[in-house]
Design goal:
Beta-carbonic Anhydrase, Chain A, alpha/beta
């Protein structure tokens, strides 16, 4: 009986220690495993043969009290590239931030810091897309109304770099703009940069084709 009490006490102590560290209750997938899942989902999108996972009433009810998204996505606000469709994902699968030109600012960065600190999400994908209107506006220049000049100004350094490259200027600028965002997020301290350094977070870039739906992954 004494041994049984001792075992129960040790188990209770272990549970308290785990709770105190804020460790997630479920084993988290690795960034590589999540990336493979996204690539498989994108193949579904290209073939227009969707699995439509996690779209049931039970899944919706399951998520009322908690969420454990396995990937974070920074995507353009363009209506043609919704990440849940592009990667064939469902409710609770993706922690998504969308802004024209997939640019990085303090609000975007803070959103992903929340994903790292509180949701323990292991993968962040920055996804641009073919013929991005925001990037095209930055390439064309000229006057823009309202708050658009601030958006264009954030993309212009990527356009300037793209002008030094051979090939289609818009395509190059879209790709460089994604690379710029990836580098900004990787260097953002202390939360994201430390998570990357410790191997808790992987940040990758990608460009989605509007013609085929294929996501082209950029080299690390």
């Amino acid at each position: 009986m004494t041994n049984l009490i001792r075992i129960i006490a040790l188990c209770s102590l272990a549970a308290l220690v785990a709770a105190g560290t804020g460790a997630p209750q479920e084993q988290l997938p690795t960034a590589d495993a999540v990336l493979r899942e996204l690539k498989a989902g994108n193949e579904h999108h290209q073939r227009h043969q969707y699995a439509h996972p996690h779209e049931t009433a039970a899944r919706q009810k399951e998520l009322v009290s908690d969420q454990h998204p396995h990937a974070m996505i920074l995507a353009c606000a363009d209506s043609r590239v919704p990440p849940e469709v592009v990667f064939d994902q469902g409710l609770g699968d993706l922690f998504t931030v969308r802004v024209a030109g997939n640019i990085v600012d303090d609000a975007v960065t803070a959103s992903f810091e929340y994903g790292v600190e509180h949701l323990h999400t292991p993968l962040l994908v920055v996804m641009g897309h073919q013929s991005c209107g925001a990037v095209t506006a930055a390439v064309q220049g000229g006057d823009a109304p309202g708050h658009l000049p601030a958006l264009v100004a954030a993309i212009r350094p990527s356009v300037d770099k793209a002008k030094t490259l051979s090939g289609n200027l818009i395509d190059n600028a879209v790709r460089v703009n994604v690379e710029t965002a990836v580098n900004q997020l990787r260097r953002s301290g202390p939360v994201l940069s430390e998570a990357v350094a410790k191997g808790h977070l992987r940040i990758v870039g990608a460009v989605c084709s509007l013609e085929t739906g294929e996501v082209h992954w950029l080299p690390n």
